[in-house]
Amino acid sequence: MEFDYIIVHYDEIGLKGKNRGSFEELLIRNIEMKLKDLMKSCFRESGHLTIEINAKADISKIKEALSQIPGIAYFSFAKKVELNLDSLKKEAVSFLEDKKYDSFKVNTVRHDKGFELNSMELNSKLGEVIIKACNKKVKMKSPDIMLKIELSKKSAYISDEDIKGVGGLPTNPQQKVVALLSGGFDSPVAAYLMMKRGCEVILVHFHNKNQASSSVEGKITKLAEQLSKFQVKTKLCIVPFENLQKEIIMKVNSKLRMLIYRKFMLKIASKIAELNKAKFLIVGDSLSQVASQTFENLEATYTDSERHILSPLIGLDKREIIDLAKRIDTYEISAMPYGDCCSYFLAKHPTLKADVRLLKKNEALFDVDKLVESAIKQAKAKVI
Question: Which residues lie closer than 8 Å to 238 by C-beta, 6 or more apart?
């Protein structure tokens, strides 16, 4: 069967009331930018979006792209049919004639209620024709094939497979955030969850070339490339951190170094957010997962941040995070060995209950503005 259309369904967008149109327009824009010459057009119909596919387009590429665009709940490759009973009967039989199956079910969805038959009546009419023409049996539970008929105002579409999408909301370029990206499992998942909520996520990685292996930057780029599949445009900033870390090591007790590292990372990320007109910082913190993420240490490091900090993983445990990493295909990349600059010259038993005043006292040992400005000037940015 050569498909000529795709029916795109959303769920959350459908609840947006008067704002629904603007979300649909965002989703159409994102689809157009992702599919490019694989499609002819994308337009709104009753309760869904319809994509007209270019002739000889690579279906597998379309499927991969659509399954990773936030805002899409599920989609179906479909055949367009004239909106009358005779055409539906003829095309339903034609649609099934080359397929291998013993049982089937017809499921009609009327996005527009103007058709002459209701859903149950049309299911019955088409079922009778298929039984007679194909000598197959109807099975209401777990049939071999579910023949789906979708009726819009002007056309009908026949399909037999719903392909799951990301869900959530479409990317809005006005909703920019900056996500701190390490080479671990957590931060890529945190970035993805914000992409799923409609944010355009700028990725920032802090790199110590003296301590980390030469493969780290390649690994971070791979993570950014994988995450880029979930938004239209992805900017990656790599910030050199080795000189700043040397100063911290010289002046700060090893039990507090991790927290001072993080304070500087948040300050640098806040400046990057300011330069890119991003509103929030995104971190991969999960409450009490590691020493730097205890209740008290999070309070100490988040206090006085120049940008509000969002932690989408805060209530998840490690298994839940790993499961998400596997689902979005960052797990294997994150599992690659690398040198983590955050583990550089730390105490065996770091502090678990840092005091905000003590961290401020340690920060006062540095020319913070000068160090942040230097890091920003040396940062490398690329669009993926």
Answer: 205, 207, 217, 220, 379, 380, 381
Last residue of a domain, one of 164, 179, 207: 164
For residue 142, the domain's CATH number is 3.30.2130.30
Cα(260)–Cα(315) distance, integer angstroms: 24
Residues 173 and 226 occupy one common structural domain: yes
Last residue of a domain, one of 127, 146, 164: 164
Q: Report the alpha-carbon distance of residue 62 to residue 77 in Å, rounded.
A: 10
Residues 113 and 215 in one domain: no
Measuring CA to CA, which residue among 217, 228, 352 is closest to residue 297? 352
Residues 6+ apart with CB under 8 A from 308: 279, 280, 281
CA distances from 175 to 23, 194, 197, 202, 206 (A): 13, 10, 10, 11, 23
In the chain, the number of structural domains is 2
pLDDT in tens, 79-138: 999 999 999 999 999 999 989 999 999 999 998 888 999 999 999 999 999 999 999 999
Q: Are 111 and 46 in contact (CB under 8 A)?
A: yes
**What range does the domain containing 131 cover?**
5-164
If one counts every other C-beta atom within 10 angstroms of the C-beta of residue 224, the result is: 24
pLDDT digits 0-9 by tens, 271-314: 999 999 999 999 999 999 999 999 999 999 999 999 999 999 99
Distance CA 60, CA 208 (A): 39
Helix, strand, or coil (residue 42): strand
